[in-house]
Amino acid sequence: MTRTDGRLLALDLGTSSSRALVLDAADASPVPGALARHKISPTYGHDGSAVLDVHEYVEGLLSCLDELEQGGHLEGIEAIVLSTQWHSVVALDAQGAALTPVVTWADTRSIDLDLGSSFDEQAFHARTGSWLHRLYWTRRIPWLLSETSPVSFAGLPDLVIERLIGERVTSVSVASGTGTLDLATGQYDEEALQIAGVKADRLPPIVPTGWTGQLSAEYARRWPGLVGVPVHPPTGDGAASNVGTGAYDETTAAVTVGTSAAVRVVHPIDNAPELPWNLWRYRVDDKRAVTGMAFSAAGNMHAWLTNVLRLEHDEPTTVEIGAPGVIAVPFQAGTRPPATVPGGSGVYFGLSFDDTAETLLAASLQGVSLEVDRGLRMLDELFGHELSVVLGGGGIDASAWWRRCLTATFARPTDVCAEPEVGARGAAAVALGLSPLPGGEHLTPAADDVDRVAALRPRYESLRDLAVQASSL
Fold it and tell me: What is the assigned CATH class of domain 245-471?
């Protein structure tokens, strides 16, 4: 890793919490005791809504900086970096005030589009890395236009940047998560804008990776130690997490487990391999892209099960990895594009009176592992070799059983990132050109575990196919 002196302030804009933490600039590791967290509780509705109150969110984040200031942690800061959730959108009025809450990635509301037979979605996907799916602004914005009378649109990180520096801008990384970016040029895609029904001037301007801003006078007075400190453009959390785990080239896939899960590979944008239909591609920065697959049920499902089943501990330690018996298809939160399985489609099959809370938890974690493995095998094929794997994120850090399960399901060794704050670490690495290493344990799959998972996989795939079919009934 490239070494730097001083300290960094990282802001992590998550779905379940916002965090402000101080990092050692030498290795982007957290400074002990210098972390403040504001818990986020999205509001979910029967209409498919999953929203955040933008005012509450931003004020909570600012209170985190106040907490660090009170602890004396905002002295000697050399840069401010941000990692952020992708895909969010807010409709704004002529004064830039929010007309809607923050519509998050988990929100399933949108509008159907009929673009006729002349629209080539394969070419659109290859160019933007996205699909015409409810996750993206190409379908979100027409829906918001039908519900309100907005003048412009922005994502949560764009509004946070505007609040801090007084200027609304976005990064190439954040813009790529909207589904409206031409990945090759790093500018808004004209066809995507036409589909969304807006001009580029109604969206935040895209700044290059090397751009920096400074805190406005209001916040310079509030946090004197941050006067003149450069604020770097935000990095989408998926890209930041990859780099933060140490998976920052095309030899290595990162598997990260937070609220959701993902498997991704970072690679140069120039001469990138042709994008398969089932994978997405976003930007890391001006020179790199990240290709992968994401899954809506992971840490959120683990937390839900722990609560619903009233587990005394959150590890199914008495259950063998790949054990026969109950099988769980983890579609509780639906699927990400291009699949269209709605939320509420989770399945348990093979239940018996012998099953316990632990076997249900184990089956769910195994189901997520098998879903991630589907994506990993697609990436192996895309890059032409069996990829090395790094495991990272809060869910990985919290569960030794899940780490072993993933390793056995992949049937290959894995390295574990020792730092749970991979998003903040990765945002620092992207902004400052650092190359972090995983730094954690090396896991070798147990042969018996691998064999049991291999025997389980055909049954799981058959049940998964049935679950997909049933979700459309």
Answer: alpha beta
